TrEMBL record, chain A:
Part of the ABC transporter complex MalEFGK involved in maltose/maltodextrin import. Probably responsible for the translocation of the substrate across the membrane. PROSITE patterns: ABC_TM1. It comes from the Bacteria. The gene is malF. The complex is composed of two ATP-binding proteins (MalK), two transmembrane proteins (MalG and MalF) and a solute-binding protein (MalE). The keyword DNA repair does not apply. It is a multi-pass membrane protein. Coiled coil: none annotated. SUPFAM superfamilies: MalF N-terminal region-like, MetI-like. This is Maltose/maltodextrin transport system permease protein. Belongs to the binding-protein-dependent transport system permease family. MalFG subfamily.
UniProtKB/TrEMBL annotation, chain B:
It is a multi-pass membrane protein. Residues 85-281 form the ABC transmembrane type-1 domain. CDD domains: TM_PBP2 (cd06261). The chain crosses the membrane at residues 12-39, 91-110, 122-143, 163-181, 202-224, 258-281. It comes from Chitinimonas prasina. Its main location: membrane. Belongs to the binding-protein-dependent transport system permease family. MalFG subfamily. It is found in: Cell membrane. Keywords: Cell membrane, Membrane, Sugar transport, Transmembrane, Transmembrane helix, Transport. This is Maltose/maltodextrin transport system permease protein MalG. Coiled coil: none annotated. Part of the ABC transporter complex MalEFGK involved in maltose/maltodextrin import. Probably responsible for the translocation of the substrate across the membrane. The keyword Transport applies.
Amino acid sequence: MARKLEHWILLLAAGLTLLAGLFLTFKMYAAGQPLLATVCLATLGLATYIYSTGRAYAFRYLFPGLLAVVVFVLFPLAYTFTIGFTNYSSKNLLSPERAKQYFLDETYVVDGESYAFTLHSDGAAYRIRLENENGDVFVTDALALKQATPLSVPAHRLEAAEAPLSEPADTKTLIQNLKVLKLVSVTLPSGLVASASGLREFAPVRKLYQPQANGELKNQQDGSIIKPNFETGFYETAAGEPLQPGFKVGIGWANFKRIFTDSSFSEPFLRIFGWTVVFAGLTVLFAFSVGIVLAVLMSWEALRFRKLYSIFLFLPYAVPAFISILVFKGLFSENAGEINLILQSLFGIKPNWFTDPFLAKVMILIVNTWLGFPYMMLLSMGLIKAIPADLYEASAIAGAGPFTNFFKITLPLIVKPITPLLIAAFAFNFNNFVLIALLTNGRPDFLDTAVPAGTTDLLVSYTYRIAFQDSGQDFGLAAAISTVVFLMVAFLSIINLRLTKVNQTENR
Amino acid sequence: MAVVLDKSHRWRVVAAHLGLICFIALIMFPFLMILLISLRPGNFSTGDLIPSQISLEHWKLVLGIPYQAADGRLVEPEFPVLLWLWNSIKVAALSGLIGLLLSTTCAYAFARMRFAFKAQLINSLMLVQMFPTVLALVAIYAIFDQIGGYVPWLGLDTHGGLILAYTGGIALHIWTIKGYFDTIPVEIEEAAKVDGATPFQAFRYVLLPMAVPILMVVFLLAFIQGVNEYPIASVLLKQQDQLTIAVGIKMFLYEQKYFWGDFAAAAILSGLPISIVFLLAQRWMTSGLTAGGVKG
């Protein structure tokens, strides 16, 4: 009985999910996104197929998880690549349709004619009273003024026989209702349409642009023509002057050309690339060197309290990185930091950890070595355990010291299995965004670059700054750089897989 | 070791102990400092490292309790640290649960069923897991901007959206759980199937109860990942009340508004429980991973 109930509940849940999905698809279609709606519909169809036939039984278990991976990992990557080929930025944010609509919604005030405007309460509602310079008075019927939606209402000439209006509403009421009033357009008996042009004034307005058959827009005020330029993503005047807001268009390889040929972009790019490689390489080198020495010590049986030591040594790895990085940021602080306090009292120096490019890099490497050595220690300990003990016994008989042991036995035997792990660590640090974002945010900055770029920026933090912190918000350029970085990381991963495979086949 | 020990050996042991103790002291320095700073009155260093007087003002502020300053002012908490922590726990726990649900079912299919493209699928999951999400931040931002247009509670600046974004990172979990399933003999489920159980029943009532330890470990790992995640949260969340602790806590250290003491208290308050959970999970993880992860 309970099993049957469970079955029905499942069926009901599936039905509701399907309905919700269909509703969403419809909403997307209604919002003018047919492509998105089609993809959604296809996904729903696939889901229905998988869960209704017995033939794809295994995929019932796989579908939700794989869908999540595809939508939130693979799709964003693919999307990043496509953004790299567009001019998507804060200047070219809208779709072409939305940009066109923006221009079509623009209005202008006809002539200099205007109407004095007062608002009069009529029960819980309001009436709008307009008076022109000749003393003609027009009023609307009572309006609720509750919802901020575009509203078009007629006004008639106020006749003497009509009941007089109440006292005009005070400024406070006007300001409270201004948002709603701005959307009201009043049609006067003459056919003119007037809208609020100020707190106490209505003026006849007209749509500024009239769409033409060929996609151009005609300016009603001065008769000029603006046309969309799908190369640059702007509406342009006859003189070729671009008008805001622009729209998103494909611009081919232009972003990539900028990165590699425009010296104002390629130079910081190359400098940052250089530092990224140096940073990732040195981090792995330092963390591994410290880690393996500690691992050798921790595997040395003559040493007591090893368990206790290793707990302490492991602690930096257990503390969340976002906390330890910020702790170091405070400790290294130039004026208030405890590290400079100690250095000052011991040696009388106060290094500029955050304003001197070289010292900032040194600080970053110190912090990252601190963060990274426990992991390297853990890896090395595991590998050292696998080295047969008789090798060391043989070397002891031969009278070898610890250094000979380390360089002739331990290191050579570890190098091969650990290389893929070191490459993975290199790739991780190549993209170590959190460290840079929280510690220096790329600063100190270069002074001679077109987009903000810092001496300690990695390629990822550089793209993040271009996309989210620069006023230009050049998403297109950021995505193009991301694509280049991705190719580098993919290259590293492929090498890595090869090495891992070689190791595995040799072990067999 | 049955090796003759020479004189220098003892000397070496002593040197190793000394070196290790010095090194650990150096490593522990930040932890010790941050504890002292959280107990020191004021937000600026007073000149000496060890505070001459103990003050709980930073701890009070972090716990949301206003206190009276020396000059009589009422000092109100600047940031809702407890709310941020709660946000983090909520997002990490929910995304961990959803991730666990998705990855367990996937792992079951990969471990026990035969279907087309199985090898290709599981290998491409391995590749996917190597993609750094930081590179797709722009796209993730744009995607959730879009989603928010249709489902407001999954858009930008919502916890729903953040949880959804985290569910994509399950590739590694699938591998881990699959590895564990591979170590459990198929015969047990087959026995259940002989008794008339459907594949789902065999999964739900036979395999799952046996896999609880690895599921716990994977959940804890996903939880810690969720709490520690910074890049996606920093892009998706903007309003102060919505922030997770990873995004929020750096606000204590802006150059213009520098709350070093308050930060120290907040750091300990949020860092300590996460570190403990991590140390616990780590102990299980090494055994769980070596039990299953090696087999591919």
